[in-house]
Predict the structure.
Amino acid sequence: MNQLEGRSSTADLLEQAINGKRRAQGQLLTLIERGGFAADEVTELLHHYTQSRAHNSTLAGARCHAAVVGFTGAPGCGKSTLVGCLVAKITQEAGVGRSPAVLAVDPSSPLTGGAILGDRIRMEENVPAARSDGTDRTANAAVGGGAFIRSMATRGHAGGLALAVPAALRLFEACGYGPLIVETAGVGQVEVDVTRTADTTVVIVAPGMGDAVQANKSGLLEVADVLVVNKSDRPGAEDARRDLEHMLDLGHMTGLTGQWRPKVIMTTATEGTGADQVINAVQAHREHLEHAGQLEARREARIHQEVRDRVSQCLETAAEYHLGTKPDPLAAALKERITPAAAAAAISQHLLASDMPA
Amino acid sequence: MNQLEGRSSTADLLEQAINGKRRAQGQLLTLIERGGFAADEVTELLHHYTQSRAHNSTLAGARCHAAVVGFTGAPGCGKSTLVGCLVAKITQEAGVGRSPAVLAVDPSSPLTGGAILGDRIRMEENVPAARSDGTDRTANAAVGGGAFIRSMATRGHAGGLALAVPAALRLFEACGYGPLIVETAGVGQVEVDVTRTADTTVVIVAPGMGDAVQANKSGLLEVADVLVVNKSDRPGAEDARRDLEHMLDLGHMTGLTGQWRPKVIMTTATEGTGADQVINAVQAHREHLEHAGQLEARREARIHQEVRDRVSQCLETAAEYHLGTKPDPLAAALKERITPAAAAAAISQHLLASDMPA
């Protein structure tokens, strides 16, 4: 009985959210963030809604997906300020078009979170009419009612984040937002994977932090579609730009879209300088993807990644269960009679169907 | 034939490493870092060596394990300088005792690596006779031949790091080093797991970075056994100390060892101030663990974590194989006919033995 009530209330929430109620949108995001049964229910309901809308739509078969744009950069590069500035511009110019939604992924990593609260506050100052706290506003976001900004904290649940981000993006899309902006600190594999599967990935560096070289070493430049040198009024900005152009010349960046040479843009986000060029570059990259027929490939890469992450989660649950009920190989490893590798091989062999290579 | 040659040369390398040849130690660490078959061979050989040594030793059944001490903190907190300073002190005072080994885990994360090379150079300046480049030195490290410092880079292979760190620690131990110091930037789940399973975990914060509050929010303080406010000559150091003590008062830190109240120590690593107190606090914590009978629990937690990480790796390999040969549920998810969650459930059901809950 309680469960049925819960179900009907989630469906109600979704209906309200799709009709533009920000409070309901915020509540659904909280369910998604928490994970587990309630989150699965939201994604299941979202799927049915999207399916029936596609079926009813005269555009069935030619659905227009919202653009997903990832922004990443080391703590302190001014990422949040830049994103806030871009969102403000898009919102002001959107007119009756779509409004952007921002999912700011707080690092699942301890200690490097940076001024999370401060970032949010700064970003919202730049964005008129934005609310991230679930405040109820009856304006329909889909017809220019303002941007939606939401932080997603993960408190160390890296796996949870991998599942929550795509679900949140799907909710944003169903509610009519676009473009969908995912902002992550460039730390941790999960955050990078999230950014990597965006339609367009913007990598931000600041002068004098050695970021350009770092980003290259880490391989992140390989997936950058647009490069931004923020804080361009500071010493070293020109050096950073030259470093990046030099690495481009050397062919260090050969991602999915080999023919695309990432633009390097200088910005001073605190003054709004360069914001228009970033928006234009993102737009130009999207048009490039469309012409190259690669938009669909990027969308599929996102779903592929999500399926893999969910399979990993299922398998880990099974492994935990197995370790709880048949702990012999683990016990042998703990006593150092066998190596952890040998224990893991034995456990995997038990877990997997017999026609699988362990 | 080539494979046999390979095997015999790895066994030779191990014998040289155990006899104190730093070049061989460095080469084995490179094999471990690269992963795959060669790395597995090293750990297998190490296991046999350790087993036979335990068998031959008059101390069989009462093996003395080297202490594992984790140091973590945000980039810029002076972590490497502090570790270098501690290593220099331990090395100078060790006399004919054991020499410490340091495994500095470079973040697998892009963009926040900090001055990796600079860090290494700074650290080595502080440590007499230390070499991290595999330079051959005939002095046996086990009898005071100097510390061994090694960076382990991962270039995004988070899973590889999880497997390489415990193998490297086992090699260090077999070569007679102790204590074993693992230094990680507090970014990314894997790095945190590595630190979490140390015997003693030292969390370092710097004044004025909001680190104390961040560390608390992220849950890392819960696993801190020793807290260090480094750069204590800077403004805000006393505030940071007070924040940490306040959080201790509020009972925010209740880890494995509930009765242990972490000490808060002020250091200025660049001048060596406070280093002795850190060493004493780590020693005091180890004695506490011994008295509480928890040293063994921490060692088992490390092995447990390693078995889980290796099981995850086996399962992911099987999942990749399966996705390659039976891609139907994935294809349905890509066409949005079913949700990624439904596809993942179907794939897991195929993968797992029939008596496993998918």
Remarks:
- Chain A touches chain B through 83 residues (CB under 8 Å).
- The longest helix of chain A spans residues 295-325.
- The two ends of chain A are 43 Å apart (CA to CA).
